Structure formats: C-alpha cells, structure tokens
C-alpha cells in the first residue's frame, strides 16, 4: 500500500503541471484537474488530502474553487500557487480558505509545504479495534448481531461506537429505536477539528452507552462519504474508541473494500444453508486474494440449530476453515427485540442467543468467556485448536468444496 498523500493540482497549464509533477514526484500521488470549476468535485472523487490551486490564469475562479473546497470538505488542505507574493492576493487566498501560499518558481518551498502537510496528515496509530461484520449474503442477521455485539463490548473502561455504512437504507438506528442528526458526513466534514470530548458530545448515544454513527435520513449528503474517506474515518474513530463495530456492508464494492482493509477483525457471518455456504466460500477466496492473513477473518455461524442436516462439522470441512463461534437460533426473541427497538440483553437476558453473543463479545475483546457449553462457542477468536482430525470430511450436497473446480463460473457474492 502507498502511504503518500493524494494531492490534486487544479487549474494549472500543462507547463506548470509538468513542473509540479517533477517537484512532488517523491512526495505525493499527484492528480491533475485542469478546470478550476470542476476542481472541488474532482478533489472529492479522488479523496485528495491536499489541493494545489493555481491562481495565475484566472484568480477569481481560483478563489471561488478554494472557497468551495473548504466549504464542502473542511479537512482538505488548500495551497495557493501564484506568480509572485502579492499581499492583496495572499489576503484574498487566505480568506478563501488557503492555508499556504507558494510562489510557483520556488519549487523548494513547494516541496517543504507539501512535505510538512503530508507529515501532519500521517495518522496516529489507532488504539482501538475495528470489528466489521460481513454477511455472506442477504438475510444473515448481521445487523442484529452488530447492534447486540456493540452493547456487549461495553464496560466501565471501554467505549464503543457502532457505524452503519449502509448510507441509503441502513437499519442500525431503526433496530435501536434511535434518531440522529449528526451523521457520517458531519464527522468527515469536521474530522480535523473534532477532539475527543466534542466527538463524544456530538455523536448520538444509545441508552446502553453505545455511540451510533450513521447517515440517518440525510441522504442528500451521502455522496460526500466517498470510499477514499472510509479508511481514515474508521481509523480516526479507533483513536477515540476502544471498539469500532461496523455494519452495513454490501458485497465487495469500493466502500466495502475500504472498510475491510481498515478493519482489524472481519467476522464472516453465515447460516446453515447451501447458498450461504457457497457464498462464504467465495468470500473467503476474495479475502485470501486481498491478503487478509492471520486471524483477521473469523467465521461465525448465526441461527445455529444442532439438529440441522448441514451440521457444524460439515460446514467446516467444506469451507476449509474452522467456525470460530455459533449463535443459537432464537427467532422469537430476536424479532421481539427488533420490533421493540431494544437489545437482547433487555428483551431476553437469559436466552441462549444472548449468552452466545456475550461469548462472542468476550472473544472479540480478548476476555476469556470460559469453557463453552453444548452448542455454544467452540474456540477462541485468537486461534488455537484445530478441527477434530478423526472424523471424515462430509461434503454438502450442492456445495463444491473449496479448491475444487466447478462447471460454471460463480457470481459475485451477494451481501446484506
């Protein structure tokens, strides 16, 4: 991965473009937008962190572009490029949002300014864990798991934020019977100015103590939440929260890939049916190609019933990986909690499904849940214990075992 910042050069002539490219070759990934009018939109599209705006050809248009850049995206750093140090022009540029003013023929100064800004942009090492629930297909119950898991990760010493990345039809706020006026787009807009206390006081808080961040009903601002900004957003939250629980991913689009890349742990959620298992195979194959190694990806079996014909051992044999944990099937308790907008810990505190989710929270947090009973969790989320070697693999009818060739190409996985 390339850690250099993305810099956009706006409104420059081809000659100046070549000069700037040469100066910043080792410092940044440079994108070019010749049009001053289209500059702000291109900066958002490419996730630019630094914008170099050329004032020489048309200063009025350039000043308007700077103002729009800062108004639409408060976190972008704007640098004005000019032919000379004109005090009036410097003042106008600063009022329009420029943080730096550089004379075009002083390439050393441009390199210094961009280098300093790049160092300021380097993210601090996140302290919290980013846990993403990724359903193998639609209807896996990932949102119910995410909302309850987030609440169970809470403690007196731990803060948790639940992030819904389904920007159009996310269900997290509905599941928790909440409303929120502060959105993902708002956090992105103010991210550079948000300190911990301001963040905690702005984000909606559920009665359980979980902070919730979603796009809510503000769909008109959803286009401001671009894939390039998802990784920085989740890492920013991880610097302030002990756990960032992510829900709402749908397949392997750019938004999902950005969230998955930023995650410390991915919980692949599936159920005991052939379509789910086939899609889980495809998902695991994609994760391997993305080089998600070690214990980043763990498999969780939701709505588990011991009596089902497709049992736990058959699923493990066909996936080629062990199932980290199972969550009991208890539709009445889960749907009652969802319809009332409350958590399982309140709706059914002694139910097996609630117990299993508590164990999952213990495994994610690293606190041992104790020895599992019966159909509960089998192994720790952090490794250990292979599957029983004495039982023979049992293929599932309709599922091609991982690594085998199938006659027809598989479609892309369908997720929630």
Draw up the topology in text.
Blueprint: E1 6-10, H1 14-24, E2 29-33, H2 39-46, E3 50-54, H3 59-72, E4 77-82, H4 87-96, E5 100-103, H5 107-121, E6 129-135, H6 142-152, E7 160-164, H7 172-175, H8 184-190, H9 196-202, E8 204-205, E9 211-213, H10 227-240, E10 243-247, H11 254-262, E11 265-270, H12 274-289, E12 297-304, H13 312-319, E13 323-328, H14 331-340, H15 344-347, H16 352-365
Parallel strand pairs: 1-2, 1-3, 3-4, 4-5, 6-10, 6-11, 7-9, 7-10, 11-12, 12-13
Antiparallel strand pairs: 8-9
Helix pairs in contact: 1-5, 2-3, 3-4, 6-16, 10-11
Count of strand segments:
13
Q: Could you tell me the strand content as a percent range? A: 15-25%
Question: What integer value in Å does the Rg equal?
Answer: 25 Å
Order of helices and strands: EHEHEHEHEHEHEHHHEEHEHEHEHEHHH
Largest sheet: 8 strands, mixed
Low-confidence blocks of residues: 368-393, 402-416
As laid out across the biggest beta sheet, the strand order is: 8-9-7-10-6-11-12-13
Q: What is the approximate shape?
A: elongated
Annotated CATH architecture of the largest domain: 3-Layer(aba) Sandwich
Structural class estimated from helices and strands: alpha/beta
**Oligomer description:** single chain
Question: How many domains is the backbone divided into?
Answer: 2
CATH class value of the largest domain: Alpha Beta
The percentage helix is 25-40%
CATH homology-level superfamily of the largest domain: P-loop containing nucleotide triphosphate hydrolases
The name of the CATH topology of the largest domain is Rossmann fold
């Amino acid at each position: 991965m390339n850690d250099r910042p993305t810099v956009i050069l706006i409104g420059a002539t081809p000659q100046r473009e070549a000069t700037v490219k040469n100066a910043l070759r080792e410092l940044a990934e440079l994108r070019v937008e010749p049009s001053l009018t289209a500059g702000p939109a291109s900066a958002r599209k490419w996730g630019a962190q630094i914008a170099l705006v050329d004032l020489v050809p048309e200063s009025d248009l350039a000043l308007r572009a700077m103002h729009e850049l800062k108004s639409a995206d408060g976190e972008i750093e704007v640098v004005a490029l000019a032919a000379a140090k004109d005090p009036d022009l410097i003042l106008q540029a600063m009022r329009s949002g420029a943080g730096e003013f550089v004379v075009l023929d002083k390439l050393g100064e441009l390199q210094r300014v961009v280098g300093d800004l790049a160092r300021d942009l380097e993210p601090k090492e996140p302290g919290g864990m980013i846990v993403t629930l990724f359903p193998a297909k639609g209807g896996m119950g990932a949102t119910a798991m995410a909302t309850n898991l987030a609440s169970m990760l809470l403690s007196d010493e731990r803060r948790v934020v639940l992030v819904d990345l389904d920007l159009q039809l996310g269900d997290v706020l509905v599941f928790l019977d909440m409303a929120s006026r502060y959105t993902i787009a708002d956090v992105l807009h103010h991210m550079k100015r948000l300190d911990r206390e301001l963040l905690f006081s702005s984000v909606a808080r559920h009665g359980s103590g979980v902070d919730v961040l979603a796009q809510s009903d503000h769909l008109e601002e959803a286009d401001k939440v671009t894939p390039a900004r998802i990784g920085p957003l989740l890492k920013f939250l991880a610097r302030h929260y002990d756990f960032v629980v992510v829900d709402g991913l749908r397949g392997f689009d750019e938004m999902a890939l950005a969230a998955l890349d930023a995650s410390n742990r991915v919980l692949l959620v599936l159920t005991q049916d052939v379509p789910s298992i086939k899609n889980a195979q495809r998902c695991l194959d994609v994760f391997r190609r993305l080089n998600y190694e070690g214990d980043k990806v763990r498999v969780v079996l939701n709505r588990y019933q011991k009596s089902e014909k497709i049992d736990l051992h058959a699923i493990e044999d066909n996936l080629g990986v062990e199932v980290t944990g199972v969550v009991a099937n208890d539709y009445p308790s889960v749907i009652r909690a969802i319809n009332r907008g409350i958590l399982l810990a309140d709706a059914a505190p002694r139910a097996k499904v609630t117990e299993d989710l508590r164990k999952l929270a213990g495994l994610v947090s690293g606190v041992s849940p104790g020895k599992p009973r019966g159909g509960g969790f089998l192994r720790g989320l952090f490794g250990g214990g292979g599957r029983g070697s004495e039982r023979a693999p049992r293929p599932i009818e309709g599922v091609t075992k991982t690594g085998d060739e199938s006659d027809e190409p598989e479609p892309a996985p369908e997720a929630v």
